[in-house]
Each structure stands twice: as structure tokens, then as C-alpha cells.
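About this split. The held-out portion is used to measure sequence recovery: a designer receives only the C-alpha cells and must propose an amino acid at every position. Recovery is the fraction of positions where the proposal matches the reference. Here is one held-out target exactly as it appears in the evaluation file.
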């Protein structure tokens, strides 16, 4: 019986968790205040009206409403409040 591990097993075991980035709320979807809209690295999507940005560039809703995307030179994400 071997009393040391084989070389293959000692070099493995460094697989990291995926970051689960991307759009979490699509265009036209109703979101509540505080809902995460986009998880991203850097500013691929930019915050517009009623959208805040966290320190890790996460975009989140500041009010209840419908998600709207707008593209000019940059892509903006905003939340349009629903009239009650």
C-alpha cells in the first residue's frame, strides 16, 4: 500500500466557482425596488433612471416598475414606474 498520494491528485483541486454574471431582469419585465437587474464585471451596461450601481458594478432597481434597455453609444438600463 502506498503511503503517499499520487502526483495527479495533489495537483488538482483548484477549480473556482463561476461568477453568475449577466442580465437578471429582461426588457419589459416587472421588478420591485432593490431587485438585481445586471451582474457584470466593469460597466458593460450603464445605470439610467431609477437604477443604482453597486461597488461591484451590479445594477439594481431603485423603484418598482418595468425594465427598459436603451442603446446609443452605450447600453443603458432604466426602470419605468408603473402608474397605479
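Reference sequence for scoring:
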Amino acid at each position: 500500500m502506498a503511503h503517499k498520494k499520487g502526483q495527479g491528485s495533489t495537483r488538482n483541486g483548484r477549480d473556482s466557482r463561476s461568477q453568475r454574471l449577466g442580465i437578471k431582469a429582461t426588457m419589459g419585465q416587472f421588478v420591485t425596488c432593490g431587485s438585481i437587474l445586471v451582474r457584470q464585471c466593469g460597466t458593460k451596461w450603464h445605470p439610467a433612471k431609477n437604477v443604482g450601481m453597486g461597488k461591484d458594478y451590479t445594477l439594481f432597481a431603485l423603484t418598482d416598475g418595468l425594465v427598459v434597455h436603451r442603446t446609443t453609444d452605450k447600453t443603458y438600463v432604466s426602470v419605468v414606474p408603473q402608474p397605479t
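Annotator remark: The helical segments are 7-11.
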